[in-house]
Amino acid sequence: MDSSALFWLVLGLVSLVAGGELLVRGAARLATLFGLSPLVIGLTVVAMGTSAPELAVSLHAGFAGQPELAMGNVVGSNIANVLLILGVAAVLTPLVVQAQIVRREVPIGIVAALAVTALALDGRIGRVDGALLTVALIGYTAYTVAESRRETRAVREEYAEEFGTQTRPRGALAVSREVAIVVAGLVVLVLGARWLVDGAISIAETLGISKAIIGLTIVAIGTSLPELATSIIAGLHGQRDIAIGNAIGSNLFNLLAILGLAGLLTPDGITVPGGILRFDLPVMIAVSAACLPVFFVGHRLGRWEGVMFLGYYAAYLLYLALNAVHHEALDEFSLAMAAFVMPLTAVTIAILVWRTLR
């Protein structure tokens, strides 16, 4: 493997994390300076900020003529956000699931995942598809702003503790400082995306692995690092509903904003490889749907659920690895998952939901 390709990939990952952190902090504080609602900040600015690496990578990949890498990045990131990020965060400390996450964000996320899959059936997310997703994003944002009028004092205090308590403009100097931080974050993100995509493409070509697989694994995990860091820090600081809200909100923005803008702005749209359409998109839908009963039970994500999520993510990565090299054990592994592991998990969750309803 070319050592320079690995160097640029690692440098790109580090830059994406640093740029995402700058963008999230700067944008959140800038929003509070102008008196925006903390709930709006959390569900829009922070979620979009932690999704900025995926946006930068997908746009760069689309313009660089690597649309399959862009699609793999979004789908892989959404799977990683739930199974890997929430799994790690829940293992470290049980997470609280607010009722509105179960009632609103998770169902909207499931509908968005189904809509993206329907639009991708022709093998491409084109300009019309991108426009539809962008309109849906605008509608969701407007709905969130309207709903923010109902937020509780506890939610306000929690977001104020995380991102600062300023709610009114405090002069041109404060605004200029936060704008500079946002711009710096965007610059680092763009550079990091370019380095990461170029390094990933070189590694894929050297190893003979499809760019879609690289997007689903290395790039997806790398661009999900801001969500991972945010969720872990929020959980350890006792802000456990933020940990879940960040991951679920980022998934929604990945589908609506990133695929929407990438499909709308890139010259030829986003190509959807057959493998992603047949396997990874259904996995993404299943993961999104599984959140509903898991979150409903006790309105918390405990350590055993975190271990289960991590186990399924390891199984998903193993499947991708076996499929990439056409290993003879792939059929036996798939049969074991389909005939034993997944039915057992479904039965267990169903029993827990039944007990909760009783």
Verbal overview:
This protein is mainly α and 358 residues long. The chain has a single domain (3-327), classed as NCX, central ion-binding region (A middle domain of Talin 1, Up-down Bundle). Helices cover 82% and strands 2% of the residues. It has helices at residues 3-33, 38-50, 52-63, 67-92, 99-119, 127-147, 153-163, 172-207, 211-223, 225-236, 240-265, 274-296, 303-324, 330-357; strands spanning 95-96, 124-125, 270-271, 300-301. Strands 1-4 form a two-stranded antiparallel sheet. The protein has a two-stranded antiparallel sheet with strand order 2-3. Helix 5 (99-119) runs antiparallel to helix 12 (274-296). It is globular and about 60 Å long. The protein starts with a helix and ends with a helix. The model has no long low-confidence stretch (mean pLDDT 79).
How would you concisely characterize the structure shown here?
Helices cover 82% and strands 2% of the residues. The chain has helices at residues 3-33, 38-50, 52-63, 67-92, 99-119, 127-147, 153-163, 172-207, 211-223, 225-236, 240-265, 274-296, 303-324, 330-357; strands at 95-96, 124-125, 270-271, 300-301.
Features:
two-stranded antiparallel sheet, mainly alpha, single chain, A middle domain of Talin 1, 358 residues, 4 strands
Shape: globular
Which architecture does the CATH hierarchy give at level 2?
Up-down Bundle
Q: Any idea what the CATH superfamily is called?
A: NCX, central ion-binding region
The CATH class is Mainly Alpha
Strand residue content: under 5%
Mean pLDDT: 79
Number of helices: 14
Q: Output the radius of gyration.
A: 20 Å
Record field, number of beta strands: 4
**N-to-C SSE string, H for helix and E for strand:** HHHHEHEHHHHHHEHEHH
